[in-house]
Amino acid sequence: MKTKNTGVVSMNEEKSLGLEGGFQVDLRQTVYALSDALDLVGIDEVHHGKRVGYMAMLCADKLGLDVKSINDLFELGLLHDCGVSSSRDHQQLVDKLDWSEAQEHCRVGHDLLKNFAPLAHMAEPILYHHTHWEDLKQMDLPPELCLLSNLIYLVDRVDTQSAVHHEKDVLLKINDLREFVYSKRESFFDPQLVNAFMDVSSNHAFWLGMEQRHLIHFIADMGSQDIQTYITLEELEQLARIFSRIVDAKSQFTVEHSEGVAGLARYLGEIYGLSPEACEKIGAAALLHDLGKLRVPDEILDKPGPLDKHDRAIIEQHSFETYEILRRIPGLEEIAKWAAYHHETLHGNGYPFHPSTDEMGIEARIIAVADIFQALAQNRPYRKSLPLEKILEIMETFVIDGHLDSMLVNLVKQNGERCYQEATFRDQ
Ligand SMILES: [Fe+2]
Ligand SMILES: [Fe+2]
Ligand SMILES: [Fe+2]
């Protein structure tokens, strides 16, 4: 990972920044966009992470933290709930002030980020972001860690109490919300953080800034700051893998689905003869292809019988959601399309864009083939996983009806065993 201030970049500098070959993706822009995927877990109640980041930043400013720590806190706010994939768990965390199973999402979030160097500094604050201050202060942890995690805890609990009042009557609730925080001083929250919160939350602007229209501008301003930290293609893949785990953890049936689609898609790219860089990009797109599924309620993904038309209408939004998240990351425009086209067909009968046969490039066709293959090889609530011969038979029918690329399906047939392994070996 390389950092630079924006400006003119010489050719030598460009090489040292890892920008040669045209890959130029900014970590901050990527984190901001991917955090939108986490917000989808709230279904219709979105922007929790953004409001937590916003409040944490303003409190940190009041506490006199330096600019870098304030910016880091904002990103920590955006990602603090990366351990929540299920809409049911999200609801419990919103409905219950002190949910007895809350620690699990802290542990999951910590484990997801701890080995990814650019974001590893968030792992421990996430681990303790539901620990009461009265316990935290006994734990012999570094004071800075206690401050970060307890501040996120404080503003997180404020948001779960106040979210329903934004865009409506939040100004009528200010006293109640501040009294709530004060009542948890010493027990849930560090008194110095409570004092900072009481200070910043005493004005109307603090609360009104969290209305969706204003929050979106705030995020845009944050994103336009003149600091860029480029990630390598390898780091993008690592980050994509983290998000693929968040998506796949949504249902017991899709565990490692995206990883399997990526393994098979990369392999198909290789035997088709694409360059190693193109195969890596296909792998990243495949890891991210189902991001938008975070917005599908758990009941639909886990439904034991066939889906009705209402369920379908909800499911069929997911690849568009994937596109909307990824297209906003400068440098990932192609990857966004490849990922979002995974339910398109060669004859334009898929969803959501209905591209023409020519617009459906080889990369998107590969991911569409890999997605179907992997899904057939996995258990689903309404059927068991299928053996290779049956998968190939079904894929042949998809070729006949113009759904899948016949040349790619032939490649799959010629390398059936290996394809099966690529798509599933991580499951076994
Ligand atoms: Fe949260
Ligand atoms: Fe999908
Ligand atoms: Fe998929």
3D structure, described in words:
It is a single chain. The chain is mainly α. It is 60% helix and 2% strand. It has a three-stranded antiparallel sheet. The longest helix has 20 residues. It binds fe (ii) ion (FE2) (3 copies). One fe (ii) ion binds next to helix 3.
Question: Roughly what fraction of the amino acids lie in strands?
Answer: under 5%
Largest sheet composition: 3 strands, antiparallel
**SS content category:** mainly alpha
Number of helical regions = 24
Which fold name is given in CATH as the topology of the largest domain?
Answer: Hypothetical protein af1432
Write down the overall mean pLDDT. 91
The radius of gyration computed from the alpha-carbon positions, rounded to a whole number of angstroms, is 23 Å
The CA-CA distance between the termini, in Å, is: 33 Å
What is the overall shape?
A: elongated
- Unreliable stretches (pLDDT < 50, length at least 5) are 3-20
Ions, cofactors and other ligands present here are: fe (ii) ion
Secondary structure: elements and pairs:
Elements: E1 2-4, H1 11-16, E2 25-26, H2 27-39, H3 48-62, H4 67-79, H5 87-95, H6 103-113, H7 123-127, H8 133-136, H9 143-162, H10 170-183, H11 191-200, H12 204-208, H13 212-223, E3 228-231, H14 233-248, H15 257-272, H16 276-288, H17 298-301, H18 309-315, H19 318-326, H20 333-340, H21 362-376, H22 388-400, H23 406-414, H24 416-424
Antiparallel strand pairs: 1-3, 2-3
Helix pairs in contact: 2-19, 3-4, 3-9, 3-11, 9-10, 14-16, 15-16, 15-21, 15-24, 16-20, 16-21, 19-20, 20-21, 22-23
The chain binds fe (ii) ion (3 copies).
The site of one fe (ii) ion (FE2) has 5 residues, from helix 15.
